[in-house]
Specification:
The protein is an alpha+beta fold. 28% of the residues lie in helices and 31% in strands. The protein has helices at residues 44-67, 105-115, 119-124, and strands spanning 6-10, 18-22, 25-29, 71-85, 88-101. The strands form two sheets. It has a three-stranded antiparallel sheet, with no helix packed on it. It has a two-stranded antiparallel ribbon with strand order 4-5.
């Protein structure tokens, strides 16, 4: 697991713009203009899809190297949508994986199976525990 702590804070440079720090890396997040943001960076679901796509590609690369497969390049295209399932709205992520290289049909099928086992896919596919707590603000006096 990565050791980096992720810190997200309002930037003050837009209605929804956020400064994102992941270890030594700095990013910007924002909502698109159509949602009232400035469109200055990826939206939150874009980051979620990015995590799944990157993990999928990296997992496939690791597996192909370990097995000596002739995988030349992996590309993952993802889309998120809300869909109706039995009268309730559910989130759906469509993931399209392109595998370039001289691979047999059985190897391609095995790589698809491995994609289902990438750590982010597994995390998103099971009940997830998210624990939240309030931290004291630096400018707010604490009351006894």
């Amino acid at each position: 697991m990565a050791d980096a702590v992720v810190v997200v804070a309002e930037s003050g440079r837009g209605r929804y713009q956020q400064d994102v720090q992941v270890g030594q890396h700095r990013l910007v997040a924002d909502e698109p203009v159509s949602m009232g943001g400035g469109g200055s960076g990826p939206a939150p679901f874009d980051f979620l899809l990015t995590a799944l796509g990157a993990c999928t590609s990296m997992t496939l690369r690791m597996y192909a190297e370990r097995k000596g497969l002739a995988l030349r390049r992996v590309s993952v295209e993802l889309q998120h949508a809300k869909v109706d399932v039995d009268g309730s709205q559910r989130d759906r992520i469509e993931r399209r994986i392109t595998l370039e290289g001289d691979l047999m049909p059985a190897e391609r099928q095995r790589l698809l199976e491995i994609a289902e086992k990438c750590p982010v896919h597994r995390t998103l596919s099971q009940p997830l525990l998210i624990e939240s707590r309030l931290e004291p603000a630096l400018d707010t006096p604490s009351k006894p």
